[in-house]
Each structure stands twice: as C-alpha cells, then as structure tokens.
Amino acid sequence: MTGVRTPATTPGPVVVILVVPADDFAAQGRFRVAAPRSNAENPSVVDSSRQRRRAGTVASAVLLLMAAAALVVGALPGAGGVSPSAATTAETQPSEVTITINGGGFAWTFDPASAEVAPDGMITVVNASGTSHTFTSQAYDTSGTHKAFDVTLSPGDSTTIPASTLQQGVYHYFCRFHPAMQGTLTVGTGPDLSGAPSFDQPLYEPPVLTGKRLRIVMKKAAVQVFKDGPATTMWTYGGTYPGPTIRRPTGADTKVTFVNNLPKAVGSVTVHQHAGHQTSANDGQPMSNLIKHGGAKTYDYPLRDGGKPLPAALRFYHDHRMDETARNNWMGLQGMFLTTDPNDAKRGLPTGRYDIPLSFTDRSFTDTHQLTDPFAGAGSAAHATNAMGSMTMAGATGPSGTVGDTVLVNGRFAPYKDVQPGLYRLRLFNASLFSAYDFKLSNGEQFEQVGTGSGLLPHPVTRSDILLGPAQRADVVVDFRDDAGTDIVLQSIARPDGKESGSYPAFPMQFRVGSGPSPTQKNLSDNLVPLPKLSIPKKTAMTWKFGLSTDSRGHQFWSINGRRYNPKRVDHKVTRGKVQKWRLVNTSAMTHYVHLHEELWRTISRDGGRPPLWERGYEDTWRLDPGESVVVAARFTDYTGKFMIHCHMLDHEDNGMMATFEVVKPKRR
Ligand SMILES: [Cu+2]
C-alpha cells in the first residue's frame, strides 16, 4: 500500500487552493525551504555530539516515539500499518500523495496515516471534515525556529506542498488542535526527523520578588522570545514574560499591588492567584473588583487556610477577566507564585539553585516575531464563537488560533539549562491556554513526583511520563547523577493511551549536565507529608456536568449543567465550615481540565476507583476525559462569598464553561 489517493476519489469537498512553484511557496512565509543535507549536520536530530555516557538512550527514546506513532497508525482506519522502515525506495515512490482529514465527533484521522512521496513529488492535504485542523510537522526546518510544515485548514480547504521544499526523511506530523491525530510522511529516503530544534539560548528565569509588600506594574513590554531577531511585544506583569516569580514562605501574609498601565484598549483587568485561598474580593473576580486602566488594586494573600499555612507549592497568578481571559493570557499576563516551606530541605528536596520553576506554553508568531492575534480585536468569547466563521462550529472546534505553533519555556523558545550531575526539583507548570503536554525525559529516566501544584504528596511517585493539561503543575525530582557530560531533552510526547484530545508532541527544552563532581545532597525521603484526616460525607452535595449545549437559536456553547456562565447567577451554595463532596463529570466528547477555586481540594475517586497515586494529594485542576467522573471534597474554610468553577482551557472558559459557587455564613440557631 502506497497511500496514494487522487483528489477525484477523495470523499467530501475538495478545493485545491494552493499549487505554486517552490520559490513562490517559500515566499508565503509559512514554509521555509529546507535544503537537503546530511544527517551529520542536521541540528534537528536529538542526539548531540557531546560525550554520551549512555549512548543509545536518546535513540531509544526516538524509537519509543516511533513505536507510539506506529501504534496510533495501526489503530487508524485505512492506515494499513505501513511503517516508515517499510518504505519503498525513492524510485518507486509516488509523485503525488493526498492525505485526507476524515471523521467527526473528535475522532478525526489523517488518511492514510502513513504515506510516502518522491522527493520531487507533491503532497496534497484535504480537509474533508467539518472542523478546522492543522497539518504540522514535529521537525523543524533549517532555520531551527520554524516547523518544516505547518498548515491550518478550514473545513473544505486543501493545500499542496511541493516535496522539494522539504529535507528528505521521515516526518512525524500531527494536528495542533487535536494532537491525537497523527501520521508519518516519508519524503524520499533519509533519517527519521525527530523534530528537536537546536537549543541555543539559556533558560530564562524571571526576576524573583520576596517582600511582604510587592508592587507589580502591568505594561506593554518587549520580550526576547527567540535568541535572534526582533523582540516580541507582549502585555506583561512587571515588564517580563513570565512576570516576576513571587517567592514567599507559606503562611506569611503577602500584599501585592497590581497597577494597570496596559494600553487603554485592554480595558479593566483582574488577577487570580491560582490555587490560593483568599477572600472573594481578592480572588480575581471576572466582573467585579476590577483594576481599571490607570488604576491599581492591592490583593491580600494570607497564604493560610483554617489558621494553618497553606501547603507549599508552585502556584501562579494570571488574568481572569470576563470574556478576555484567553486573550489576556495569550498576550502575556501570567506569572509564577512559589510558596516555600523550610522543612522541604529535611525531606531531601533539592533547594536553591537546584529548585527550578518551569512554565511551559505555546504561542504563534509572525515573521517579525510578533504574537499572532487569534482574537481579531473581538475578545476571547467572540473568538471562540466566530473563529470558524460559523457559530454552530464554535463549541465543537474550540481552540483554533489559541494553540501556538511554538512551545516556550519560561517565555523563551527552545532553551537549555546547564545543570550539575545532582538531584533537581523541577516545578513543571502547563501555562498553555489549551494544549496538554505529556512530559518525558529523552534518556528514559523517570521522574519522582513529590507534589502537585497545591502541595506535597504523602509519598514520592515514580513516573515515566507526566501528562499535564492547562493550569496543571507537577512537582518532580529528577536525578542527573549518572548523566555527567550528557544532554537530555525534556520532551512532550503524544499521550501513549491515544485518548481523544491527545497531547502536544514537542521538544521544549534541554538539560546540559556538567562533568561533575556531583554536589553533596540528601536522598529524597520516602515520607513527605501525610494528608490530614478529613471526614468525607456520604452524600454527594453537587454534581457538575461539563458538556456541549445548544441554545434556542441552535448555537452550540460549552456549558456546565447545561448552562452558560452568568456572573449574576449563583449555581451552588455551601455553608462555611462544612465539608462537601462534589462530582465532576465530562458528558462531552473531548477532554476538559476542570479548575476549582479557593479550597484545599482532594481527589476521592476517579471513575469509581481510587485515584492514581499522584492524585492523592491536594489538587485544583483535574483532567476529565470523555465520560470520566472524578469525586472531590474540601472543607470550606475562612471566607464567605463567590468563587468560580470552570474549565481551564481558556477558550472554553470564555465560551460559557464556568459557574459560581457561593460560600455562605452558617445559620444561627
Ligand atoms: Cu474545556
């Protein structure tokens, strides 16, 4: 099976828009012509020329990736299970190949999923589905900063790429909007193009603020995202992206004055400390207690809960403005908030320069390195409903422009970090608007997960990969002691379970392990922090169903219990001091990541069983795959008032998937 289809036999609408000579094609700006070259000088191969004590570990990781891709390929209809290694020679390769995007209901496929084409051939991609998709290469071109190919196709669109614009080899590709959609494309003969960029700038670590009274001015600023070329204009906290990292001992009251010096057109903003416990007025309400243009507001973060210090963790702060949350976060209004616990050193947790917060996100850029504008000046909510040019498509398609083609770490593209052959505590934080990342180390080494984004786990949990959706964090320890002199890539792999919404395959950053000697460090304790006892009520006080609903005019929107968010409506009331058990259910056909504000939530069960070991600490954001249900519980302490529950895929939040719970005073007898 060669995987050749001609447009004439392709089901669905076919509109060939783009058939241009290679030179013109490159001039479109979406593609860079990649001259064929030898593997030895190819910077996009993960393995480096540096000394490797464990040669072959990276290669095995690449093989693993290929195996995962082959698995998906085998599972797809029409794929025929052709693996890249079984490719025919260049002489027998077809001069044309058509890859058709088929399917619906979140079960889209590239058909055939495995295809090949001669080096002077033509690749046509046809979107025969009712939803927008991208055809995106994992590999970079010779520029090292642009994907070898990355095309967005609206329903009915098609595009043609001359194979001569691509380096010969095996490309792994995916849809950025629905990364469970994957395939491989073999152009001529050549290496497996793993997709890693050249890691050529150091990791940026934002300025750290440690005082009990802080002032952060929000303003437009130039951010050097790429090593070379123009800076990117962003909306920032304090002039940097991410904003300054607030680092405070847990339990120590912290007051932060945020000043809105953003361009007037941005309007009012509001700041939410994610996973914090603060009064309603200090929680970053979407419609009230706003910071007007030119104004300021001081937020009070006691960092205490029920009279005790909050568990220490990597929290974060970000804009939460009604209808504009996605836009404001896309533009840069995000920063990290690290609460620290002096006892962590006794637990063997690496501290100081061995403790590194890492914020991962994705953005798309123009040729002059400016952020693309997925919102077209109309606001996030309007974007979510208009992006596809069809109101009815809004709910079902969701992301479109808010999934970037470039993954950033601490606001920089493809950074490296020089480390020692020791233990490191990494705070992995998914700051994306929509994408999930499944983190894995390229040398196959495992993570010891010690905590969530809301506190430590009772015991470390060994994990080979860690899937994090938007807003989720994982506190992990990695052991570089046997890795002196090697380079290790922190990858995001395609979700191995192949579940509906997938995860974004990428090579976000690299660790360069020095030659040693290893620093003197304690070993990690097996017992971190026991979770205090909480009597969980038998009765489920509230069920929240996350779904796709249709209004009276036939327009779809993301909903909770069938309703669109209304800031005037209270959806559930809770008495302060009580413990409640809630059930979160995903009734839709795609994965959501659901965030609860305010309390110290714990996971009681997942799909009727005990939650996995890494979900047995405090949590604030849960992954809900289609049909899944998670039971959570918390005591409602200290504060009365309104708080939010919402999907943290920000398009979904802005497009209705948010609700309000209100904590009320206990009744007097
Ligand atoms: Cu969602």
Can you put this structure into words, describing what you see?
The structure is a single chain. The protein is mainly beta and 669 residues long. It folds into four domains: 7-193, Immunoglobulin-like; 201-340, Cupredoxins -  blue copper proteins (Immunoglobulin-like, Sandwich); 353-364 and 404-513, Sandwich (Immunoglobulin-like), CATH 2.60.40.420; 542-664, Immunoglobulin-like. Helix content is 7%, strand content 37%. It has six helices and 46 strands. The strands form nine sheets. It has a seven-stranded mixed β-sheet with strand order 26-25-24-28-33-30-31, with no helix packed on it. Strands 4, 6, 7, 9, 10 and 11 form a six-stranded mixed β-sheet that branches. A hairpin with a 6-residue loop joins strand 2 (96-102) and strand 3. The longest helix has 19 residues, at 57-75. The radius of gyration is 24 Å and the shape is globular. The termini are far apart. The structure holds copper (II) ion.
